[in-house]
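Handout, page 2. Input:
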Amino acid sequence: MSAKRIVSLVPSITELLVDLGLEDRIVGVTKFCVHPEHLRKAKTIVGGTKNLRMEVIRNLQPDLILANKEENVKEQVETLASEFRVYTSVISTWQETLDMITRVGALTGTEKKAETIADALNQKKSAFQAAKGNSSKRFRTLYLIWQKPWMSVGGDTFIHKMLSVAGFENCCGEKSRYPVLEDAEIISLAPEVILLSSEPYPFTEKHISGLQKLLPEAVILLADGELFSWYGSRLLGAFDYFGDLRSRI
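Output:
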């Protein structure tokens, strides 16, 4: 049965739902569902991704809840799954992203639109890699998501996969999840490029100078974290961005 009352607990999947033409069927979103911008004013806010307002969700009486293993709290999702139909995505690879898109399409009766988005993503990825990816230099890169302490991304994350797709070699690729780094370790990693993500920590230009003192030879750039970590239709704009980012190195 195609879902008619959807609660999305995942910002990137919320945007995908809208791009599938399902805005009218969304009844609840998180406070972090910022795309499209107007949605949070039009829909019921069910809390944060890791701090759900369970009674608010229950009162919405959804016939489908969309969750993610990493972004949401296991115990909360399990509780909801005992009462409602819940699809929990598990995404750390490119193929899992495509599978999620087509699965959401199947659950919502928008299979053709979902397949169109998945096909477009594959085409953009192939064209990028043919022109600028695998045939170009793979910059040794440190991708930072937090400071005090510094935190990066390991090889079992979706961001790691997107760094590889974009033609960057992750300095922390042999580490797991989100490694914490001291200044000395950052120096020893000897990255050619440091990317400062816009999320979850909101790095700005002011953070570049301190890191530049640690690694004066490295190219340090701000990076749009959404285009490295939001699996879903936002990735349609990722490859033009990756090309522009590489051109600035």
